[in-house]
Amino acid sequence: xxxxxxxxxxxxxxxxxxxxxxxxxxxxxxxxxxxxxxxxxxxxxxxxxxxxxxxxxxxxxxxxxxxxxxxxxxxxxxxxxxxxxxxxxxxxxxxxxxxxxxxxxxxxxxxxxxxxxxxxxxxxxxxxxxxxxxxxxxxxxxxxxxxxxxxxxxxxxxxxxxxxxxxxxxxxxxxxxxxxxxxxxxxxxxxxxxxxxxxxxxxxxxxxxxxxxxxxxxxxxxxxxxxxxxxxxxxxxxxxxxxxxxxxxxxxxxxxxxxxxxxxxxxxxxxxxxxxxxxxxxxxxxxxxxxxx
Length: 293
Fold this sequence. Notes:
This is Crotonase/enoyl-CoA hydratase family protein. Helix content is 43%, strand content 15%. The protein starts with 5 loop residues before the first strand and ends in a 24-residue tail after the last helix. By secondary structure, it is of the alpha/beta class. Helix 1 (30-45) runs parallel beside helix 4, helix 7 (163-171) crosses helix 8 (173-182) and helix 11 (223-237) runs antiparallel to helix 12.
């Protein structure tokens, strides 16, 4: 599969997904949205991929939406007058998908449903959708050159890409509101101090650091257990009562204990590396346990 706006390269079990419009600071387009959704779904089904590192070509990560297109720059159909009922009852209607649903949010949902760990390697400017697309990713690393901004208020629009769900969970509601109210451009250090990124590293070490972290997620680990842990953490942490987590934990423990769990226990007792055979493309039958995403 070829892409116009991305580079998709798998090496040693790690997919490097590179936003590849360097002459335009990797600004976000409808084509990029479609290709990112396809790439995340492809990675979920590809058992050669153990983890994903997302970065940008050139000096930017993603400078936000490409605002140079004619008409509605967000690709929305201004002839419609959508309601919440439309978004509930016609969610998959092509007219709603293309004309009403936020493209950034569709990308975020693709990251959310992905079965592989996702690491953002933010190498430069990450503004607007360039910032919010990183929020569903599991870990964010920033180059010392990174600049991150939730600048929607300056454009007269609102945070998108389901960021009002993700951002408060990462940095807390007060800081999330401060950042979106002010629309300030944050330095890498400010993003670190606020808990948005895990670490700030020299620019020439960013990918090396991201790959090292990805290897820790992949080497010697069951792909099935990792995929389940990722979904369990996101979904269960948003459940209204811990009994919901208990239900899912019970099924996940049951199915892993009779599969890769047997090899894991044997390897532990025999003091040797485990050789797991489970595949993230073939998860237990109770997955997904919610049908609304």
